[in-house]
Specification:
The chain is α/β, with parallel strands linked by helices and 399 residues long. It is built from 14 helices and 12 strands. Strand 5, helix 9 and strand 6 form a beta-alpha-beta unit. The N and C termini lie far apart (57 Å). The model has no long low-confidence stretch (mean pLDDT 95).
């Protein structure tokens, strides 16, 4: 007998992945360079040369048994030390290696963090719009996902609704800033208000509500925008990070959980993560990648292309009459569709070889996401297709 839960999931595949597969198939027909594929958030800039050099040096010079052997169950000590020291330098924190747990990307980090601070039946609050995979991440632990409706004016936090939903059943709150899909960065005022509420409710309920902060886009910021580091504002924060975007390493699946050292249970939580791995078959990311990242910890790829692409799209979308909040980071933009049904809108766009993602699965119907992590030259060519699409399908819009 097979597991019906996972068979049922086969009929609910990721909309993003389905559209990406459509774009690939369409590319075989007309040439992928002619498909304006804004579906998948796959980094489009190369890794830094220094990272490749570090990989080569390790392979050539290190003892193969040490390099490719099992790392300790709580992670490679060099990697943990490098992460802790980097976070301390950048954010004036007090991490030690014992506060860091290496994971298979931010997804693995969130999966561990959720299991460390919830039990089946607990509630976890998320803020719309959110990355659709949060649903299986949370429900896979036995917890219940509770969604705070979107603040569509600025895509900060709808605090009135948050206050209503923050009950004794809630054991964790999951945030994502800079945000996928909006590109919006939570302001310091937003983070302060959020953490003040968590402290107040934790005191009232008699237990600590954990803040799980999903931060894979932390390094992709525009025009001097600052991204507050949530762990600076709230003791009971688990920071979940991935090097997929900063170093353009999505295929290497390397990230970490950083448990705030101000939390008395922080080292216990990291030790628990090792036991969670036993139950999920996680067993650490690749030893080689941990060591290579440790040697290039403060480097990033050249991320400037994302701001260039954002500005091109934002200017064009506004000129065509779209309502859109300007991103402060990431490589996503999140306009309101030109009709109430964003799925219908995005289906019409396919006729013009524009692959856009409707935001229904992000818990924000009526909007769509564009992932502009593609060559700038292709973004520029896409503007003609976008104009043709809008002027043909929506002639009454103010453009």
């Amino acid at each position: 007998m097979i597991n019906e839960k996972y068979r049922d999931m086969l009929s609910k595949k990721s909309v993003i992945r389905n559209l990406s597969e459509f774009a690939t198939k369409r590319g075989t027909e007309i040439g992928y360079e002619n498909v304006f594929d804004f579906s998948l958030g796959n980094p489009s800039v190369p890794v830094p040369d220094a990272f490749s050099d570090a990989m080569v040096k390790l392979i050539k010079e290190e003892n193969p048994m040490a390099l490719h052997g099992y790392s300790p169950s709580l992670g490679n000590p060099e990697f943990k030390k490098a992460v802790a020291e980097s976070l301390n330098r950048r954010f004036s924190m007090n991490y030690k290696p014992t506060h860091i747990f290496p994971t298979t990307g931010a997804a693995g980090a969130i999966a561990h963090a959720l299991r460390a601070v919830t039990v089946p039946g607990d509630e976890v609050i998320v803020f719309a719009p959110f990355f659709p995979e949060y649903i299986p991440y949370i429900t896979g632990t036995g917890a219940k996902i509770v969604t705070v409706p979107a603040d569509t004016e600025a895509f900060q936090i709808n605090f009135e609704k948050f206050d209503e939903l923050l009950t004794e059943k809630v054991k964790a709150v999951l945030i994502n800033s800079p945000n996928n899909p909006t590109g919006v960065v939570y302001s310091e005022d937003t983070i302060r208000r959020l953490t003040d509420m968590l402290r107040e409710k934790s005191k009232k309920f008699g237990f600590n509500i954990y803040l799980i902060s999903d931060e894979p886009y932390r390094e992709i910021l525009f025009e001097g925008v600052k991204c507050p580091y949530p762990s600076k504002y709230y003791d009971h924060t688990l920071s979940c990070y991935s090097f997929s975007k900063s170093l353009s390493l999505p295929g290497e699946r390397i990230g970490y959980v950083a448990a705030n050292p101000a939390d008395p249970d922080s080292e216990t939580i990291i030790n628990m993560c090792g036991q969670i791995s036993r139950g999920t078959g996680h067993n650490c990311p690749a030893s080689l990648i941990q060591q290579a990242v440790a040697k290039t910890i403060d480097l990033t790829s050249d991320l400037s292309v994302y701001e260039t692409n954002m500005n091109l799209l934002y200017k064009e979308l506004v000129s065509l009459g779209f309502s859109v909040v300007k991103p402060g980071g990431t490589f996503y933009i999140f306009p309101k569709a030109l009709e109430d049904d964003a799925v219908a809108f995005c289906n019409k766009a396919l006729k013009y070889d524009l692959v856009l993602v409707p935001a229904d699965s992000f818990a924000c119907p009526g909007y769509f996401r564009m992932a502009y992590c593609i060559d700038t030259e292709k973004v520029e060519r896409s503007l003609t297709a976008l104009r043709t699409f809008v002027r043909t399908e929506y002639p009454g819009v103010g453009h």
